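Comment thread on ticket #2218

A.B. wrote:
> Attaching the input chain for the structure job we discussed in standup.
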Amino acid sequence: MTDKVQRLRLTFARDDAARYITHLDVMRMWERALKRADLPAAYSEGFSPRPRIALAAPLAVGMTSACELLELTMAERVPLQRPLSALPRQMPSGFRLLDVQEVPLGLPSLQSMLRSASYEVDVPDPRPPQVWRGAIAALLARDSVPWQHMRGDELREYDLRPLIFEAELIDPPGPGIARLRLRLRNDERGSGRCEQVTRALGAEADPTRIHRLHLEIEEPQIARAAYRTARPDD
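C.D. wrote:
> Ran it. Output below, let me know if you need it in another format.
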């Protein structure tokens, strides 16, 4: 196992060209990009050492995002401008590196600090805005929303309501389409799914577009001076 001397947090976007790439292929892409960019990643132990790469929340196939978070553990210190300039040249179409930040090595895992995810969702539905707003108000006013979901051959039963933090109707992109902004739980207690929320709101069709806007993480109280950030326009 290589020494861990630096922890970098990357923010990147996944556009339409990358919406059908699986989580496994995304991880392979980052491994190749690190190697080709000649960045000194720390590696895991075992018979097949892998670069220490961690995503906050894998994006489902078919979605796009403006806020994906990934952390790299480095075996040597590098200036932030080095990955910021080297990695984009090794990333395929549909991926854009937005930010590189150095964070303290002692932080908990990125996934364990995740609290919620926000989305913009388009769903085909002919109902007028006032009906949608009424459905949203009624759903948020409920104490519980019993739900059933098939996962493989297993029927899962749970309460959907604690997974929904916020929901609002925003300006639609065109007639017959409802556009929603949703903030859903995403932590060890569960992860909200946009298509389940739109069904609970009365939509008969699944969303045609789901775009992740923001991932909320909750970090321990560590001095902000420990953080350094670089962006493409720096």
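A.B. wrote:
> Thanks. Noting for the ticket: The radius of gyration is 20 Å.
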